[in-house]
Amino acid sequence: MSMAIIMLFNSLKSNAQGCVAIRGNGAFNTMEHPIFDTVLNANSDKGWYFTASYRYFRSFRHFKGTEEQKQRQVLHNEVINWQNTIDLSLTRTFDKYWSVTVGIPYLINTRSSLYEHGGKERHSSYSHGFGDMRIVGNRWLFDTHKSHNGNIQVGLGVKLPTGDYNYMSNFYNVSPSKRPVDQSIQLGDGGVGIIAEINGYLNLGGKFSGYTNLYYMANPRNTNGTRTYRETLSANLANEDIMSVPDQFLARLGFNYTLSGAFKALTLSAGGRIEGIPVYDLIGKSDAFRRPGYVLSVEPSVNYSFKKFNIFANVPVAVKRDRTQSVTDKANSERTGTYVNGDAAFADYSLNFGISFKL
Fold first, then answer.
1. What pLDDT, in 10s, does the model give residues 281-328?
2. How far apart are CA 214 and CA 199, in angstroms?
3. Residue 288 φ then ψ, to 5°
């Protein structure tokens, strides 16, 4: 079995790097966890696999569209998010075609800002706890025992609203002083998401191979009822007083270089990824508050497998960040005749690492 499958399941904690409302809430399951035993022992079809991974990023660079708002750091009024996600998942492989993964993240988030605390003093809000659970079934289209040069896997699943989407923290110099935290650090989104994914690998000859991953999560629910208090900042934000329940997407494409030996392998990977929040949902309405946009990153990765264990790490580095116009931005632009585009804070990179093993 090609070592490309290892990188096909390379760990990627998928939230966009910043205030764009993609959090490490378990929504992105694509390529989260390496099914390493499929590679190391193609004759072993059944088994349980446990994966624990960690993701960290710090978002602080503000963008309107693709233009960075550098003055925010000069004036020291930028919003800073520190996000830590520990993701736990259990995979059951039934045979050479079918598998099911159940996963749930634990999140520890801090958000530092001025505008949420009266505008004069910087304070922080916090959130921590379990996020939204995901359950995804996957099937390889071709026999994994015979398709050594390439294969395609399709997946379908659900994201369950197990995370608190109305998590509250203390705020200062505003009323009420205890209110829901910003959408970017809420533990969940309150929606039942429909997850669809396509994953593929292809041997390119010698020690080289390629991989691609496509993911989309549709959230049919329109809003979740959680207050934002954004309408207290400006009358132009009256349409953003409640949080939206947005869709999410991810796409990856890259190449692997593998050095393998008896019961062990080292794989180096380089590729690109794009992930984000669309302006409009695929199913249902797209009202209320969201920060749509996307991050385009280059993504170096390393993966080491030995016996029943697999260790992985990757560092997506942002090369393009775009906070696109929201529904409210479009409405205000049309109403005033002036182009309006809200902002969002993004990170320069994220750090991801973890370990998997067969039970």
1. 999 999 999 999 999 999 999 999 988 899 999 999 999 999 999 999
2. 6
3. 70, -155
Residue 261 makes CB contacts below 8 A (sequence gap 6+) with none
In the chain the domains, ranked by start, together with CATH numbers, are: 4-358 (2.40.128.130)
pLDDT tens column, 81-105? 999 999 999 999 999 899 999 999 9
pTM: 0.91
Query: Residue 195 gets which letter from DSSP?
Result: E
- Residue 8 has φ and ψ, to the nearest 5°, of -60, -35
pLDDT, residue 20, reads 55
C-alpha 25: how far from chain center? 7
How many other C-beta atoms lie within 10 A of the C-beta of residue 118? 13
* Look-up of token digits 């660079």: 61
Question: Can you tell me the distance from the alpha carbon of 317 to that of 312, in angstroms, rounded to the nearest whole number?
Answer: 17
Which residue in this structure is represented by tokens 């399709």? 154
Decide: 27 and 157 in contact? Cβ < 8 Å.
Answer: no
